[in-house]
Specification:
- By secondary structure, this protein is mainly alpha-helical.
- The protein contains 5 helices and no strands.
- The protein has one domain.
- Helix 1 packs antiparallel against helix 2.
Length: 172
C-alpha cells in the first residue's frame, strides 16, 4: 500500500514539474536546451518544429491573444495546485503511517482544498476564454478535477493526463 502511494507521489511530483516547464534559467524561462514538454506528457516529447514545440517566445499550442493569457493562468493554477497537493498528500500518508489520524485528516483536507482551488481557477479561466474550444476544454477539465476530489488515492499521473489532454492540444 505505502509503496503504491509513494509511486503515486513521485509520479505527481514529476508531472507537476514537467507541466510547470522545467528550466535551467533562474527566471524560469525554458531554454533552447530544455524545451517545455507537451502538457499531456504521455504522448512523448516534441522535437524542434513539432506542432506542440515551443515557439520563439516560449508559447506552445494554438492559443493566441487573450486565450494565451487564459492558458498561462490555467497552467499556473495547475502547477500551484499540484505542488500543494503532492506536499499535503505526502503529509497525510506519513501521518497515517505514524498513526496520527488528526494530522492525516487535516493534510487530506488541505490536499482537497488544493484541488478545489484548481477547479475554481479552471472555471474562472473558462469564463475568460474567447475560443469556444478552449472554454469547453477548461470546463471539462474543471469537471474532471472535481471528480478527482472524490477519491484522492486515485489521483495519479494517468488521471492527470486525462485532465490535461484537451488543454494540452489547445494551450500546449
Amino acid at each position: 500500500m505505502l509503496g503504491a502511494v509513494k509511486r503515486t507521489l513521485v509520479a505527481l511530483a514529476c508531472a507537476s514539474l514537467l507541466l510547470a516547464g522545467c528550466s535551467d534559467d533562474p527566471a524560469g524561462r525554458p531554454s533552447a536546451a530544455t524545451p517545455a514538454p507537451a502538457a499531456g506528457g504521455a504522448a512523448g516529447t516534441a522535437g524542434p518544429g513539432a506542432p506542440d514545440a515551443p515557439g520563439a517566445n516560449g508559447a506552445v499550442g494554438s492559443a493566441t491573444g487573450a486565450d494565451a493569457t487564459v492558458c498561462a493562468a490555467a497552467r499556473q493554477a495547475r502547477s500551484a495546485a499540484m505542488h500543494t497537493f503532492v506536499t499535503e498528500y505526502g503529509k497525510a500518508v506519513q501521518a497515517a503511517a505514524g498513526g496520527d489520524e488528526a494530522a492525516a485528516t487535516t493534510a487530506r483536507q488541505n490536499a482537497t482544498a488544493a484541488l478545489d482551488r484548481w477547479e475554481s481557477a479552471l472555471r474562472e479561466q473558462a469564463g475568460r476564454a474567447v475560443g469556444a474550444d478552449l472554454r469547453s476544454a477548461l470546463s471539462d477539465a474543471a469537471a474532471s478535477v472535481a471528480g478527482l476530489k472524490r477519491n484522492l488515492d486515485a489521483v495519479d499521473d494517468t488521471a492527470l493526463d486525462r485532465v490535461d489532454q484537451r488543454l494540452g492540444a489547445l494551450c500546449g
